[in-house]
Amino acid sequence: MSLIAYADRDALMAALAARLADDLRMAMGRRDRVTLCVPGGTTPGPIFDRLTETPLDWSRVDVLLNDERWVPEDHERSNTRLLRERLLVGKAADAGYLPLYAPADAPEDALDDLSGAIEARLPLDVVLLGMGADMHTASLFPGADQLDAALAEDAPVLLAMRAPGAPEPRITLSARVLNTAAARHIVITGEEKRAAYDRALVLSPAEAPVAAVLPGATVHWAP
Ligand SMILES: O=C1O[C@H](COP(=O)(O)O)[C@@H](O)[C@H](O)[C@H]1O
């Protein structure tokens, strides 16, 4: 993996949005329809804002999340809500969307239905991931109940996940599926996450789940 350190967050967000757009254009040279798999949480909003202003044949792009919190789509913690408000608008309004949420009581109730549409689109083309200061990425949390299964070489496409650090049940793509993309990027900001990333470099994926997606990925960091 390689790490690009930017002078500030603005520079990171602008450069990474441009890089993702380039990766999507490259992928469109190989396939008719391409996928862009993105994180939720607090970090990627400014990247999404820039992508929505980027000229691209968005009608050939299908967007999906790395993971989702099992809350209704209008909930303030919904990653789907973030996508609908910040990415699937503007020039990107023509993009398709592959859901990671359905209105069911628990993620287990919807796993099969949601997995089918994603399985049909593998390998993924462009993946952007975030990372928490606890070294989780997507919803692959240290100590999570299904972490071993999500890190396995033969992991399913999607898993339900519950973790001590996560206030609600989650659904997440497995590391195997996240790693199918030819273009993979990880965005991290701040000194606390930079220290966590440095720790993850010498830990196993079971201890630091982000380590499972580092090989072959480009890490983009700004203070
Ligand atoms: O819960 C989540 O956390 C990570 C990191 O989020 P951030 O707020 O620290 O940027 C995010 O990548 C993931 O998609 C999200 O569900």
Automatic annotation (TrEMBL):
Its EC number is 3.1.1.31. CDD domains: 6PGL (cd01400). The keyword Nuclease does not apply. Residues 8-220 form the Glucosamine/galactosamine-6-phosphate isomerase domain. One of its GO terms (molecular function) is 6-phosphogluconolactonase activity. It holds the Pfam family Glucosamine_iso. InterPro entries: 6-phosphogluconolactonase_DevB, 6PGL, Glc/Gal-6P_isomerase, NagB/RpiA_transferase-like. GO terms for biological process: carbohydrate metabolic process; pentose-phosphate shunt. Pathway: Carbohydrate degradation; pentose phosphate pathway; D-ribulose 5-phosphate from D-glucose 6-phosphate (oxidative stage): step 2/3. SUPFAM superfamilies: NagB/RpiA/CoA transferase-like (SSF100950). It catalyses: 6-phospho-D-glucono-1,5-lactone + H2O = 6-phospho-D-gluconate + H(+). Coiled coil: none annotated. It is an enzyme of class 3 (hydrolase). Keywords: Hydrolase. Hydrolysis of 6-phosphogluconolactone to 6-phosphogluconate. Belongs to the glucosamine/galactosamine-6-phosphate isomerase family. 6-phosphogluconolactonase subfamily. PANTHER family: 6-PHOSPHOGLUCONOLACTONASE. This is 6-phosphogluconolactonase. It comes from Pseudaestuariivita atlantica.
